[in-house]
User: Fold this.
Amino acid sequence: MRAQVPRPLLPFVVAVYFGLLAPLVVVIAVSFGPSAVFEFPPRGVTLHWFEAFFASSAFVTAFFRVSLVVALLAAALATVLGTSAALGLVRFRFFGREAVETFFLAPLLVPEILLGAALYLFYARLAIQASIWTLLCGHLVICTPYVIRSVTAGLVGLDPRLEEAAMSLGATRVQAFFKVTLPLLRSSLVSGAIFAFIISFSDINLALFLSGPQSTSLPVHIFSQIQWQGDPTIAAASSMQIVIIGLLILVVQRIFRLRLVV
Amino acid sequence: MDHGGARPIWAFLTGPYALFLFVLLLVPFANIAMYSLHPYSPTKVFLPELTFDNYRKIFDLYYVRLFGRTLRLGLITTAVCAVLGYPLAYCLARARPRWQAVGLFLLIMPLMVSAVIRVFGWIVILGRKGLLNQALLGLGLEPVKLLYSETAVVIGLVNIFVPFMVLPIMASIERISPSLEEAAQNLGASWYRMFGRVILPLSLPGLISGCLLVYSLSISAFVTPALMGNSRERLVGQQIYDEVLVSFNWPGAASLSLTLVLVTAALMFGALFATRRAGRREKAS
Assistant:
């Protein structure tokens, strides 16, 4: 039995979605338009700005050598860190467990701009030069909680007796984990990893502080191009990010419950 | 369920990330707290004396105005997000699973795209020769100067933060049984009366945590005001960015950051507390 949503609400909701999606639609349209000024609706369809994107070494470096590399590494490492942390939190009872859980989700509560400033000043005190590694460490702080959240959700729905059964049949604890638990956790693990990738790939607030001149990430490069009034190459780069992120979220929605990760 | 036993396996499992967060979250903020107590000098990176001047400075007229503007825009953003987000959350919570999946995708997809890209979209829409002004000209109306104003900043912030309002409200409405709505309506209440008496009070924890979340996110925003705002009417986030990376007034930036962290931490824990308590009450009933 379902409650009936009153009809007058529906146009309102459609209007809110319209506003929510308008900037993305406009960006994608501009990236295919022939005009060098940002024009909407476009007067034709061309791939010129995508060619310009691949011809620009600054954009290509920011996209493939910095953002993509950092996001892939962040996803892999955050998945390892986060899965192990989630296992410890869900499968064991120990003193201060709730406090540790709150601490592990704390990075989601700290405004990113402040975390970025704090890490910048921390690296500055230790005289560490900005590189993709400083950026990666910053991203791991904010990506790992998403893995913890999705793996925790996966583990809660998993019967610990399965693991115990494997152990009573002669498997060691490690074998039971890798042969029984891990395969059953696959979809929540993959969802966590995808979200870690997305968070790193689209982050701008940390990257503004942590990426150096040699390691400008794609969002930071887009930011400075907007400030310098660049051409629709910005839109082409943005469209590619939008498509990648959209596809990844579709994957998560297919294999897991989106709500449990966000 | 394992209770640790002789070998504290939980410590090996949770240890790595705990250590990581200690080094890259707690220590950097301790470092900021230390910076904020040392005086600023334009020529030296670090002076050993201790001072409270960096905090006293926050009460200067310039900073009071800065905080006033930031907190005010945060309030407006939060209010608009609540008005736009609540009906959306209600419809999503009560939608058929198929539509709910579509709605969630369309809500979370823009949320995950970099803020800078969404701001870029708004610049194209609101700019001097943008979509909005072309539409106004086409209708024979005067073009408006929206971009680089407070209104533009609020539009940008609302666009970015609406999903953060919708998700907690939606979660709390989903916990309310639809049969409660039917019962109220069967007893003769109109939909609007039922909403005011049943749904709104029961979903209040979600609304509160959504509001606190959006407020604390919007008072620390940087990208939106930097690209869509007036350069003379800056917000705290921009001030911190400039003091760290442009004027190198690190003690000043540190005291500002710490003040903002304390404000947002208080709000965030309030949000966490509101949702937790709601969760417990639900378990108890």
